[in-house]
Design brief:
single chain, 180 residues, alpha/beta, Dihydrofolate Reductase, subunit A, two-stranded antiparallel ribbon, 5 helices, binds NADP nicotinamide-adenine-dinucleotide phosphate
């Protein structure tokens, strides 16, 4: 059964990017992508992707000449200046209510074809899914750094149950089920 998973890396103080949307605190660190909780395994689970506008802009800025995902991707925004990467299956839309998010979630699950849905971020978007009762799992890789301010990991009250954890390189990685 399809699960909807927020899989991300975070600082110890709960930020997924600096206020300037930098990930330098993350990209400089040692992690084995083939190791426990690594991206290589996670990638095999997912059949559809959803992300917010800032995350999409970051990816386009950092990889201007390619698009990493061969699976359908939804980008949420109200802006009209976002364009899909040419040739990629990218759907730009808005979901302004729990009902709209639930409809979108149905499309994500259908597109995932039995695999999982990846909520890439940001944290508020993951929070919207959680609040609408649509988030099943949180997987965080915690970097040994604090940055004091930035884009929050999950700025909502969400109750979680730890199901698994491991050490990978510099990171402590934890899997949680979301309590409904
Ligand atoms: N550490 C990691 O592994 C990791 C993972 C993911 C992301 N990141 C980074 O974290 C930062 C996240 O940025 P962020 O906090 O600004 O979050 P974001 O979700 O990437 O972008 C927020 C924007 O998404 C749009 N949005 C969100 N929910 C929407 C909805 N329901 N309907 C329509 N539009 C919606 C809005 O765009 P408009 O204002 O255009 O309407 C909102 O301003 C980025 O820098 C990203 O690169 C890091």
């Amino acid at each position: 059964m399809t699960r909807t998973v927020y899989y991300t890396a975070t600082t110890l103080d709960g930020f997924i990017a600096t206020p300037e949307h930098s990930l330098d605190w993350l990209l400089s660190r040692q992690i084995d992508q083939d190791g426990p909780f690594g991206y290589k395994d996670f990638e095999k689970r997912i059949g559809a992707v959803v992300m917010g506008a800032s995350t999409y802009r970051w990816i386009r800025r950092h990889e201007p000449d390619s698009w990493a995902y061969a699976i359908p991707t939804w980008v949420l925004t109200h802006s009209r200046d976002l364009e899909p990467f040419p040739g990629a299956d990218i759907r730009i839309t808005a979901a302004d209510s729990p009902e709209a998010l639930t409809t979108l979630h149905g499309e994500l699950v259908a597109a995932a074809g039995g695999r999982d849905v990846w909520v890439v971020g940001g944290g508020d978007l993951a929070g919207q899914f959680a609040e609408a009762g649509l988030l099943d799992e949180l997987v965080v890789s915690i970097a040994p750094v604090t940055i004091g301010a930035g884009a929050p990991l999950l700025p909502r009250h969400v109750e979680l149950v730890r199901t698994e954890w491991a050490v990978n390189g510099e990171f402590v990685c934890v899997r949680y089920d979301v309590v409904r």
